[in-house]
Write a structure and sequence with these properties.
Blueprint: E1 4-6, H1 14-26, E2 30-33, E3 40-43, H2 46-56, E4 65-67, H3 70-76, H4 81-93, E5 98-103, H5 109-112, H6 116-122, E6 123-124, E7 127-132, H7 136-147, E8 153-156, H8 173-178, E9 181-183, E10 199-201, E11 206-209, H9 214-225
Parallel strand pairs: 1-9, 2-9, 4-7, 5-10
Antiparallel strand pairs: 2-3, 3-8, 4-8, 5-7, 6-7, 10-11
Helix pairs in contact: 1-7
Amino acid sequence: MIGEVFGPMDFGNEQTDAARVYEVLAGGGIGIVPTDVGYVIVACDPEAIWRIFEVKRRKPDKLNAVCGCSEMHAALHDLPGDRRDIVAAITEQCDLPLGTAANARLDHPAMAMLRPDILEQTTDHGTLAMLLNAGPVMDSLARIAFADNRLVIGSSANISLRGVKFRAGDIEQEVLDAADIVLDHGLMRWHRYEKSSTMINFSDMRVIRYGSCFDLIDDMLRRHFGIELPPEPGGEG
């Protein structure tokens, strides 16, 4: 059966919602939470993370992503100042969501606490991907966990290859049933893109995934930093 459902959102209580979810995750549970780029299914406990793979029917070679916050980005990503300025411009000045990948500081306590199989599933040749600025609940959840030297790990709340869900009610029932807590906050902000986040590796400025707000991110990088990203394959331009 589906876990406890909370919603619709009571504005201003995002931290309370996040704390409620973290209590479940810290106890080995699974949560479904809203982000501006779609609902995600997350866990902290290694066995719960693998249960997410099973319920999503996700291939084991697929990498996890991490719910991120600015403090986590500063501590875990090994980047020069100019690249950090670009990330800040996208996520703070322009208020856009961003899948941010970069070389990771693997000796940080939060990374060192990961079980070897989860570390392998969450990093790629020493790089770590985290979702930044994807809404106040996710930011708060990431911050609470990181203060505990833990990472909230997961992926989009849907059966693999069936598309990101921007309403909790559109999530497949078997995915909902796997969660111990669900935050239903209605329709998510960037739903018109019908895509997950754009993801860029800022260690080499390589686009990993063309997703939500890529057009806005690309325009900002061209105008303010003189950086031209390769156009989306099959897209305009």
